[in-house]
């Protein structure tokens, strides 16, 4: 078995090439293959490519094979002698989760056609899965590997139904998630890969995410790696390999790709500045222009003014990490620095999309005589008090005119009418002067 470690993948993960020279009827090769797979699983950050090379354990056996008993007597002297040896092999296989049933084997095969199938599977399916299936068929089921019908049955399985042994999970930060998503889809389609699921969430335009679950032929792995590198900055990457089985293959690669906006990356470095400036709006305009020069962005802005005339502003800028320190030094020229703190988050991603956050607080110098104090403030206060008094007086006058006056008029009218009626009833009956001669004399009784 030979290996080399001098090759690097496009994702900077080391690749180990292993040549496994073995025969499908070699019992210790059967066990050794499983142990190699378990060792590979212990180092998921290393990509291992295995090349299965042919080896003839028994080159003297004819193409049609021979009886198993004849083989054991010829090679080991007797069946019983091999039985003692086989016990240790059976136990070792069981410890690796394998089945070795020597009693089921009735013929010792010539393995030339088996090696041909493994060679053929390099382009059609998966040589690792093919080799494992042939070994399982011989050691666990006692299959006759010289029988053409048995070998044909080994090859009759749906390649699309075979799951990739290797799964790559990648999380990528992209400056343009929809564009990266469409480019990855086009790449998979052009390479005749299979898109299991493809989703993009655009409900929040400021936080667009996407997910792709795909499989591609291993021969197109470089195309996939190039597409992933072009999509954006890789934040997380993991590679898992399933153990050998009849339903897994190295001929395909499974990839789960998550895309997130680069703007959502947590800042790796946060610089806090508090400065005293003469003109807050002008200083804020200057800092914003400097941020735009380095392709930064404004995350949040708060501007306020106190009653005493003091203006303050708090603004959050996100800039490329490589420009954060120099930009903070430029900011200091805008005024008198009162606070300067730098904190770092080692868990945040680093790379070309790494972010530096600048938290800047600006305030102007307090006025010598605040606007709410002084002579003019007192004059304004007196005028305001007078106006409030006039307003109250006017309010009472309006209430009097609209509510009290009508009732007074009604009461006056009622009194006047009552007085007139009372005077009419109290006037005595009088005889006008000059009318007494017209009165007839009274008659005597």
Name the features:
single chain, 445 residues, Alpha-Beta Plaits, 3 domains, five-stranded mixed β-sheet, 15 strands, disordered N terminus
What's the structural blueprint in terms of helices and strands?
Elements: E1 2-8, E2 14-22, H1 27-41, E3 47-54, E4 66-67, H2 68-76, H3 79-95, E5 107-108, H4 112-124, H5 127-139, H6 148-155, E6 163-174, H7 177-190, E7 194-201, E8 209-217, H8 221-231, E9 233-241, E10 248-261, E11 269-276, H9 280-293, E12 297-305, E13 311-320, H10 321-331, E14 336-344, E15 355-363, H11 375-426
Helix pairs in contact: 4-5, 7-8
The tally of domains stands at: 3
CATH homologous superfamily descriptor of the largest domain: Glutaredoxin
Chain-averaged pLDDT: 83
> What order do the SSEs take from the amino end to the carboxyl end, as H and E?
EEHEEHHEHHHEHEEHEEEHEEHEEH
**What value does the Rg take, in angstroms?**
49 Å
- What is the CATH third-level topology name of the largest domain? Glutaredoxin
